[in-house]
Amino acid sequence: MTQNASSPSSTSQKVLNIQTDVEGTLIERPNRFLAIVEIDVNGTKSQEKVHVHDPGRLIDILYPGNRVLLRKASNPKRKTSWDMIAGRSGNNWILINSAFHRQLSEWVIENNIIDLLSNADTVLPEQKFGESRLDYLLMKGDTDIWIEVKGCTLAERKTASFPDAPTTRGKRHLDELIKARSEGHEAAILILIFRPEAECFTANGIIDPDFAQAFEKALEAGVNVFPLLFSFENNTVIYHSQLPFCKNVLYKK
């Protein structure tokens, strides 16, 4: 099995500023894209509808009573007046808005954070391969590199894991990357990890054994996996380092 993750020293580079407008308390999450949050603006409390731009369960972050950070929606006609940006976990704010994954992954590629992806001739977003549309096709000379990006917000006992909800789409993306390798292309997965306490990364076979098994097959096929650690501090996303793989895939409780 090829393990492509290593553990270099932290670089701590500021990546992206994300404005937040108010801190609130989660009341409930009626569905995966909607939350009800109580906010206090100038001494006036109100319960607001908030858009959750993350399809994951987020059960250790979005639970009643937890603190969250919101940004006012730019479109005043939208049904939800606010966007969920981050949620509290211990002493950390965790970025839980996947709308920023494109900007963060572009920063990784453009700033040559990963040797395999550095100094590309061409970077094409949202390219079709097989039955899927993958996040990037990167071209370096005669080499094509197919890239998929995943965001990781789940961590337990300093172990970051993905997914936090079953994902047939995620497994299909892995299958496509395996196919790309079989056709002679390079392939890579960027795992954007937003749990700064994490020390290693693993696929979560407790939540989704099919994804975890496909993840193992992808490694065996030579798909490169890069678990990248970020934090969200003072409205700024900060890149820290590449994490190693944990010793075991989470298959059992």
Structure, explained:
The protein is globular. By secondary structure, it is mainly beta. Helix 2 runs parallel beside helix 3. The protein has two domains: 77 residues, Beta Barrel (OB fold (Dihydrolipoamide Acetyltransferase, E2P)); 143 residues, Trna Endonuclease, Chain: A, domain 1. The chain has a seven-stranded mixed sheet. A five-stranded mixed beta barrel has the order 2-3-4-6-5. It has a three-stranded mixed sheet with strand order 11-12-14. It contains three helices and 16 strands. Helices cover 15% and strands 44% of the residues.
The rounded Rg comes to 18 Å
- Would you list the SSEs in sequence order as H and E? EEEEEEEHEEEEEHEEHEE
Largest sheet: 7 strands, mixed
Order of strands across the main sheet: 1-16-15-13-10-9-8
Primary descriptors:
single chain; mainly beta; OB fold (Dihydrolipoamide Acetyltransferase, E2P); Trna Endonuclease, Chain: A, domain 1; 5-stranded mixed β-barrel; 16 strands; 15% helix; 44% strand
Blueprint (SSEs and pairs):
Elements: E1 13-17, E2 22-31, E3 34-41, E4 44-51, E5 67-72, E6 82-89, E7 92-95, H1 101-110, E8 122-129, E9 132-140, E10 143-152, E11 154-156, E12 159-162, H2 168-182, E13 186-193, E14 200-203, H3 209-220, E15 224-233, E16 236-242
Outline:
GO terms for molecular function: DNA binding. Helices cover 15% and strands 44% of the residues.
